[in-house]
Amino acid sequence: NAGVMQNPRHLVRRRGQEARLRCSPMKGHSHVYWYRQLPEEGLKFMVYLQKENIIDESGMPKERFSAEFPKEGPSILRIQQVVRGDSAAYFCASSPKTSGSGEQFFGPGTRLTVL
Amino acid sequence: AQRVTQPEKLLSVFKGAPVELKCNYSYSGSPELFWYVQYSRQRLQLLLRHISRESIKGFTADLNKGETSFHLKKPFAQEEDSAMYYCALSGRAGGTSYGKLTFGQGTILTVHP
Q: What confidence tens digit (pLDDT) does each residue in A25-47 have?
């Protein structure tokens, strides 16, 4: 099992451009979570998805940010019209369908830099 | 609202010394507490969870509901324990975790030879 995969690992965008971050969960996992880590801060929850459903998006900014987890393919976190404040590390985690333990398996993260 | 506080950003000890990483939480329901660790150039991984009451790599953590704490302890620190440690909380209901993790800000532990 290759573990949670994220790509790209590093992404540079200019202000106003769009950023697309991809996350492939571990095999057999149907729950995906996105977290953001700003410089000098801990990880902050953004959104929790299951296949084709958003379960909890309470941590997602209301504008410019969206997430999806289609039936086929990776989960995508999309940031439109990026601003300098979006520069951060974005982590994806996954857990199995029958997760009663709460353990999440993390990817290596995507470091987004907005110029 | 749920909140996790790790008061120490940096913690340095010498090899063989005891170590305690502090974690306090705030949550109105029944919490599930975790310690995650990130070694240099590796991804974040689960170290231990309160519900399993296990010791991993010599580390233990006891949930104290009265003090709302979940401190991580090890009696004799090793150099390979140097890493970033995060305390995290997930709300639980009916035996199932809610999924969302709330993290503390992390403590960088450095164990000197």
A: 999 888 999 999 998 788 999 99
| Torsion sign, CA atoms B85, A96, B56, B80 | negative
Q: Which tokens go with A40?
A: 């000098």
- The CA R_g of chain B, rounded to the nearest whole Å, is 14
| The two three-digit tokens of residue B31, written as one number | 């919490």
Q: How far is A15 from chain B (nearest CA, A)?
A: 28
Chain A residues closer than 8 Å to B86 by CB: 42-43
3-state secondary structure of B52: helix
Q: Give the whole-angstrom CA distance, residue A15 versus residue A18.
A: 9
Grouping H, G, I as helix, E, B as strand and the rest as coil, residue A19 is strand
- For A79, counting Cβ atoms within 10 Å of its Cβ (0-12 exposed, 13-18 middle, 19+ buried), the class is buried
Q: Count the Cβ atoms, other than its own, within 10 Å of residue A88.
A: 20
Tell me the shortest Cα–Cα distance from B52 to chain A, in angstroms: 9
Question: Residues B15, B113: contact at Cβ < 8 Å?
Answer: yes
Low-confidence ranges of chain A (pLDDT < 50): none
